[in-house]
Amino acid sequence: MMRRLLISVVAALLVPAAARADERLRLADSLPVGHFFAESGTRFFMDRVKEISGGKIAFEYYPAEQLGKAKDLLSLTRSSIVDIGYVVPSYTSDKMPLSAVAELPGPFVTACQRTLAYDSLARSGPIDEAEFKPNGVHMLFTLVAPAYQLFTANRRIEGLKSMAGLKIRTTGGAMDATVKHFDGIPVRMAAPDLYQSLSRGTVDGLLFPYASVVSYDLGALTKYGTTGINLGSAALTYVIGLDRWKRLSPEARATLEQAGKEATRHACEAADQDSARDQETLRGKGVTLEPFPEADRTELVTASDAIAKDWAAALDKRGKPGTAVLGAFRDALARTH
Question: Where are the alpha helices (DSSP H) in the chain?
């Protein structure tokens, strides 16, 4: 009897912590291993949940589209095939068009300013009510990526006119309008498909932040890029299905909320801090990074206001609160300064 008891105790000690946890959550995304958001946001979030819960909540992590394509992760999370999924609203812009408010171009702002403004609307504000809840998910944490720059495979960038006629990768939504405004040809595409598309010439350039160009190893395929402008961005979110959320204990929900808020702040601060390093990494790979002429910067800011108003008006016509959300986002952005 004593021998059996000893064997049982030893076996229990050998069981992995995840197997002994009260809750095990499947977390899936489309980010490559080592992606800046996966490190500063996703892993930080999982580590904080484990720490706050004392190991009572554990994760099974599936990166790099192991459980589904980027565009499918919203439906996979809503249906609880995935417990927590990485959702880029612009990849499903038909279902989440209002989130594109964070993608609009404009004056240069930091990743944290834009992230915290978006978070205030998507965690429990008008974007949550209009988009996340109707799609059956609750947002846990987010990052609005640093200001997107223009990168090209072959054409030297000499200002806004350099976009004319180029096939430029966008995330869709508001970013399409930006490219069209300057006579470019927007090509909607998920980030994991970019490397192959650039190498084959399917696109001539892209709007992307420095960190993502580094994370997706695109430095070898781009020759030119810009600095210090704001051609838009993308909201990156991790969400949990509402059905799964409701089945969690109040303590588990509180833990995920706390860790999510901390991860949001941690990720945007890291993104802002790493910008200079990422630029140097790209220069080291032979990418020429140059600022826009001052006249083009002024033109971009002026055009951005018209693009934003047109975007909002188009949503208003569809019965969506575009103008209201644009106003709320701008107010929230002003509070982050």
Answer: 2-14, 17-20, 36-37, 44-53, 73-78, 111-122, 126-127, 174-181, 194-200, 210-215, 242-247, 250-273, 275-284, 294-317, 322-336
User: What's residue 21's pLDDT?
Assistant: 87
The Cβ-side half-sphere exposure at 143, using a 13 Å CA radius, reads 28
pLDDT for 2 equals 34
What are 97-137's pLDDT values in tens digits?
Answer: 999 999 999 998 999 999 999 999 999 999 999 999 999 99
Neighbours of 280 (CB within 10 A): 12
Residue with tokens 């565009």: 71
- The one-letter code for the residue type at 95 is K
What distance in Å separates the CA atoms of residue 25 and residue 323, rounded to the nearest whole number?
Answer: 37
CA distance readout (Å), 13 to 2, 8, 9, 20, 136: 17, 9, 6, 10, 38
What Rg do the C-alpha atoms of the chain give, in angstroms? Answer: 21
Burial 152-178, CB ≥16 within 10 A → b, else e: bbebebebbebbeebbbbbbbbbbbbb
Residues 18 and 317: their CA atoms lie apart, in Å, by: 49
Q: Name residues of the chain where pLDDT drops below 70.
A: 1-19
pLDDT, tens digit, 9 for 90 and up, residues 223-232: 999 999 999 9
* Size (the chain), residues: 337
Q: Which pLDDT belongs to residue 3?
A: 41
Please report, rounded to a whole number, the percentage of residues in the chain having pLDDT higher than 70. 94
Residue 219: HSE in the Cβ half-sphere, 13 Å Cα cutoff: 18
> In terms of DSSP bridges, do strands 84-87 and 149-152 run parallel, antiparallel, or are they unpaired?
unpaired
In the chain, the domains with their CATH numbers are 18-96+110-144+235-273 (3.40.190.170), 149-232+286-336 (3.40.190.170)
Q: Which two tokens stand for residue 194?
A: 């970019």
User: Which structure tokens are listed for 287?
Assistant: 């990418």
